[in-house]
Structure formats: structure tokens, C-alpha cells
Amino acid sequence: MDVEAVVRSNTRLSDDYNVVALDAPAVAERARPGQFVMIKPARGTDPLLRRPFSIFEVVTGSDGRPAGLTLLNKRVGVGTTLLYEVEPGRRVACLGPLGRPFTLVDPPAEAWMVAGGVGLAPFATLAAALRARGVRAALFYGGRRNADLFFTDRFARLGVDLTLATEDGSRGRRGLVTAPLAEALAARPAAPPLALYACGPTPMMREVARLAAAHGRRAEVSLEQVMGCGLGGCYSCVVRIRRGGGTPHFVRSCVEGPVFDAGDIVWEELAP
Predict the structure, then answer these.
(1) Residues 6 or more apart from 218 whose CB is under 8 A from it?
(2) What topology is assigned to 110-269 in CATH?
(3) In the chain, what are the domain boundaries?
(4) pLDDT tens-digit profile of 10-44?
(5) Which residues pair with 23 in a beta bridge?
């Protein structure tokens, strides 16, 4: 669906992060955890193309039906700065939902989510979907400092077990979030089944893929590739994969992803 979505609110979390709520029922009612939208926050040619954003939350109306969605944004360039500054009442071009979603599991399987920084974005909808299915879930969430960690209380209210880590030690474990993940995997028995989901910096996701393989667990990663169109037409988001030991080949992450089996990615060729 390609709609003109009304900005309902813009909550600035810090000097760099914000959450924008959009009135887009046609997109929201079709959204699944792990999918994304392409957003053009302003008219004109700067930026010329839309930018991809994971769907952070699906917002329901008074009747309980999907009425809109939220986007977790970190301003880095022109497009993300415009979205950081957008005011309520403005209309933004919103195309979606797009892409391959996460594969959901059912009890007795458990689910562990691993997020780094703004890589938290696809996990709010995933956590809600897992809770609705009765799946026990955990979140391993890391950032450079405490000021980079958000919405931990929201995940706690969903019954998600939290493990936090910061590189400067200002909250949770000092160091990378993959360290407590490695310890937890080593201490966990083979049963019940466990699904891993990861989104964040490429080195973090690469390490999650390695740990999953080492412990015989399946992991899915949500790649944060640069996308020009979101529909597979421009080939700006290609990644190299190898399925079942076959020949490596390129695929478009906006069409065959952004969610991939971590074991299929040719990680040494993925830009950090």
C-alpha cells in the first residue's frame, strides 16, 4: 500500500532518537513482525528517494483494529534528520508493509531476541506476537551507553526477560551484548527448542550467527541494508547468500529479506 500517512505524534527520546506515530490503517492491518516501510518525510528532491524503516509498533484504535504504526528513528543523514524534525499533522509518503517477516515459533519453543542500538526496532512487534502465542521470550539488548537504550520497560511489561549491556558499563553488563548471550547459550540445555532473532550492527549479527551455529541453534537476522526503492527494482540492497551448501549468489534484501536465515549469509562479504 502506498499512502499519505498523517503524523500523529513525534516523541523525541534524545538528541538523536525519536519515535514517530503514523496514521496508516491500510498498512498497519497488513504488517507482520520484521517487515518495513519506505518513508519519504518531506516533499522535494533532498532526499530524492525514500528511506526504509522497520515497523516498530502497530497501534490500535478504540475499536481494537490496527490504526497506525510507529517508527523508531536515529538521525544520521538527511532523511533521518527530516523524520526526527517532522511535526504532527504533516503528511509523509509511506509504502508498505514490505519484505519477508520473522518466522514465528510456538511453545514449547522459546525465543531470544538480540538487539544493538536502533536494531531494537523490529522487536516490539515480534515480542507482542510471541506473547500472543504463549512463547517465552528474552531480549539481549546492547548499546554504547545507557542513553542509547530505550523501551526496556515496554518489553518487561510483555513478560520478556531482559539482559542489558553497554560498552561503557553505564547500564547492565560492561562490554558487548554478545558476551552474555554466549554465556547463556553455553549454560542452556538442548531442550526445549530455541529460536534466535538478531538485528543491529553487522559485527554483532555475524557473532550471533557464529554462536547459533556453534550451539546448533537456528537464527534469523534482520539486515539493515541501504535500499533505494524497497521493491527490488534498483538492486541497491543486494547481499550474497549460500543456501544448503550451494553456490553463493546475490539476492535483493528488500524482496528476499530483510529477514534471512543467519546461516545463509556470506558474512565475510557483508559491509560492516
Answers:
(1) 195, 196, 212, 261, 262, 263
(2) Rossmann fold (3.40.50)
(3) 2-98, 110-269
(4) 999 999 999 999 999 999 999 999 999 999 987 76
(5) 6, 68
Specify the pairing of strand 137-143 against strand 110-116: parallel
C-alpha to C-alpha distance for 22 and 255, rounded to whole angstroms: 24
C-alpha torsion angle, residues 182, 188, 193, 194 (rounded to 10): -30
SS3 content of the chain, % helix, strand, coil (to 5): 25, 35, 40
Cell reading at 190: 538442548
DSSP 49: S
Residue the block writes with cell 519506505? 38
Is 0.85 surpassed by the pTM of this model?
A: yes
- The domain defined by 2-98 folds into Elongation Factor Tu (Ef-tu); domain 3 (2.40.30)
- The count of C-alpha atoms lying within 13 angstroms of the C-alpha of 143, restricted to the half-sphere facing its C-beta, is 15
CA atoms within 13 A of residue 77's CA, in its CB half-sphere? 9
